[in-house]
Design a protein that fits this description.
The protein has eight helices and seven strands; from the N terminus they run βαβαβαβαβαβαααβ. By secondary structure, it is of the alpha/beta class. The chain has a seven-stranded parallel beta sheet with strand order 3-2-1-4-5-6-7, with helices on both faces. Helix 4 links the parallel strand 4 and strand 5. Helix 4 packs parallel to helix 5. The chain is globular, with a radius of gyration of 17 Å. The site of NADP nicotinamide-adenine-dinucleotide phosphate (NAP) has 31 residues, from helix 1 and helix 6.
């Protein structure tokens, strides 16, 4: 018996990195998991990995900047598992690097869409379902950049700080309805996205900078997500949990 037996989870960005680890971890403690990702093939592969390990999972192609696609993904979750009790709104990216005066307005808008508006759109429909069906639990992925901006990433840092505010707002407005909403702020985590942006030398520089002396593992974020979805955190609501091995000083 797992501590999330019978729960039905919607996980965005579940085909890779932190989302994939989160999907595996939630399924590992009994949750039924719908893996939603722009990369429909990758999402299907992760669902198959989970089923091969004895868990329950399905997948759906979903662009989290598209409200209709989110609604379709959530409907698929309810249809597959008979409900929606957990959501891990995790998809996002840190594409592009420029200081503010060099940032194209279109790049700004694209980053806000995928990193912040997506969280609003997912929560809008998740909360509507959960408030009518006995409550639930939502975890959003922000970033350490919400606290300490990464150089040259204004839209990303602003969006991720927005996720912290939106999370607190949702907890304030829906806490009395049996819904908890928290956010994780990962530090520097070893994922395909990180590796695509950093060569070996840059990764070594990061390791030397971090008090832990190493990059974080996606499973270390997934463990925090499972805890935030579990009864053990039942009095934790609206919080921003930094999971970074001690790297963020502010
Ligand atoms: P990742 O390995 O690239 O995984 C992200 C997944 O999300 C990919 O499968 C990606 O698909 C998908 N995705 C991207 N845009 C999407 C969209 N519009 N709709 C649906 N799915 C989409 O990245 P990660 O490092 O695990 O990052 C996951 C989250 O953690 C992000 O929100 C990121 O900002 C946050 N984060 C990461 C770190 C880190 O150090 N890795 C630190 C702090 C916060 P494609 O591959 O097809 O694009």
């Amino acid at each position: 018996m797992g501590e999330l037996d019978g729960e039905a989870a919607f996980v965005t960005g579940g085909a890779s990195g932190i989302g994939r680890a989160g999907a595996h971890a939630l399924a590992g403690v009994g949750a039924q998991v719908m893996i939603a990702d722009l990369n429909a093939v990758g999402a299907a592969e992760v669902a198959e990995e989970i089923r091969s390990a004895g868990g329950t999972a399905q997948s759906v192609g979903c662009d989290v900047t598209d409200e209709a696609a989110i609604q379709a993904g959530l409907e698929a979750t309810v249809e597959a598992f008979g409900g929606l009790t957990l959501a891990f709104n995790n998809a996002g990216n840190a594409l592009g690097q420029a200081r503010i005066h060099e940032t194209d307005a279109a790049d700004w808008r694209a980053s806000i869409e995928v990193n912040l508006t997506s969280i609003f759109l997912c929560m809008k429909h998740e909360l509507a379902w959960m408030m009518d069906h006995g409550g639930g639990c939502i975890v959003n992925t922000s970033s350490g950049a919400a606290r300490v901006p990464a150089p040259g990433r204004a839209p990303y840092s602003a969006a991720k700080r927005g996720v912290v505010a939106l999370t607190a707002q949702a907890a304030r407005d829906y806490g009395s309805l049996g819904i908890r909403v928290n956010t994780v702020l990962p530090g520097v985590i070893d994922t395909p996205a990180l590796r695509s942006n950093h060569d070996d030398e840059a990764l070594d520089r990061l390791r030397r900078f971090l008090p832990s002396g190493r990059l974080g593992d996606s499973n270390e974020i997934a463990d925090a997500v499972v805890w935030l979805c579990s009864p053990g955190s039942r009095y934790v609501n609206g919080q921003a949990l930094v999971v970074d091995g001690g790297g963020i000083l502010a």
